[in-house]
Amino acid sequence: MHELSIAQNVLEIISEQCIKSGHTKIDSVNLRIGRASGIMPDALFFAFNAIKTDSLAAEALLNIEEVPVTGLCNDCSHSFIVQEEYILNCPVCKGSSFQITSGRELDIIDMEVS
Amino acid sequence: MKVKVVTKILEANERIARENRRLFDNAALYVINLMSGPGAGKTSILEKTLALGTGLRIGVIEGDIAGSDDAERIEKHGAPVVQINTGGACHLDANMIYEVLQDLPLQDLDLLVIENVGNLVCPAEFKVGEDIKVMVLSIAEGHDKPLKYPLMFQESAALLLNKIDLAPYLDVDINKIKKDALSLNPDLKIFEVSCRTGEGLSAWTDWLKKKALKNQKTADDKD
User: Fold this and answer.
1) Is residue B217 part of a domain?
2) In A73, B132, B200, B223, which residue has its Cα 20 to 30 A from B185's Cα atom?
3) How many domains would you assign to chain A?
């Protein structure tokens, strides 16, 4: 719902890092977005492309790696991946005590500058 | 040339949330981030909480897209209140809170309630420096909500199921709400309440009071 403000954060962070590295143009940026982060990649692409004009990232290509939701069962110790955006119980033993081990990421990994 | 960034996109928000946290800790202030969809009864629950007299000195930050109706309702109960208008933004973020903290007598408060913008999605994603998140779901919203909006249920320490007096008139399966919410978050404390009849509210205020006082004790121990 707030992909635009996420896109603005991304643009601010990468512009700052680009200047710090002594470069003037961002060619691409790689993000890692968890499926349980509440952020829809399509909406983020749309927002980023809309605001990148007139910035160091005007021609930058946005790449998003989606991270699935994974868990670790506290009862049977199995690690598992779910297709949904949430975990209700362990698919192996059906236990309801688990830790979410991935899927909440909202990270900038790296970028290409020139 | 490849540049490693490895930064959380919301790092700026989290940095300000930590600064808010520091200010709250300095004032030994317990802070709850109160969230729900629009119309679930956040402000009514706050009004009832203030009227029931917890013995706590409570301050309130009201977050709304527009208008000051909620702040006016809270002001009538004599609590210090600040209204934030987000001007369209779907949630409160740490910086919006930081900017109004100077307008509240933090040192003279025991509990600060931050009433977020009515929205079941985004408020759960932004830390503002709170101790706990508390959510309200009115039973009229339907029993499908925990699985449709899992994040808020996962993030909350307590769930108030409001408008419980409407149960005889609705086809909603309250047990399913509770079962799904607990599956998402086994530690979730659930209160069935009605602001209209007063049912269940004292269990909620007792719990809240215990939480806030425990926080003060921990702060005193640190001194």
Assistant:
1) yes
2) B200
3) 1
- Residue B119 sits in a domain whose CATH number is 3.40.50.300
Q: How many domains does chain B have?
A: 1
- Assess: ipTM above 0.85: no
If you search the block for the tokens 């991935």, which residue do you land on?
Answer: A102
- A110 and B6 in contact by Cβ < 8 A? yes
Contacting residues of A for B95, CB less than 8 Å apart = none
Chain A interface disruption, residue of B1, B2, B3, B35, most A CBs within 10 A: B3
* Alpha carbon separation from B58 to B46, B50, B105 (Å, rounded): 10, 8, 10
Identify whether B1 is part of a domain.
no
Tokens of B133: 């998140």
Reported as type and span, the H/E element at residue A95 is none
If you compute the radius of gyration of chain B from its CA atoms, what whole number of angstroms results? 18
Q: Per the domain annotation, does B186 fall within a domain?
A: yes
A108 touches chain B (CB under 8 A): yes
Average pLDDT, chain A: 93
Closest CB from A10, A85, A89 relative to B183: A89
Nearest to B151 among A38, A110, A113 (CB): A38
CB contact under 8 A, A36 and B150: yes
Alpha helices in chain A (DSSP H): 3-20, 41-51
pLDDT in tens, B58-93: 999 999 999 999 999 999 999 999 999 998 888 999
Query: Could you read off the pLDDT of A20-72 as tens digits, one per residue?
Result: 999 999 999 999 999 988 899 999 999 999 999 999 999 999 999 999 999 99
- Which domain covers residue A13, as residue numbers? 3-68+102-113
Q: Is position A92 within any domain?
A: no
Question: What pLDDT, on a 0 to 100 scale, did the predictor assign at position B29?
Answer: 96
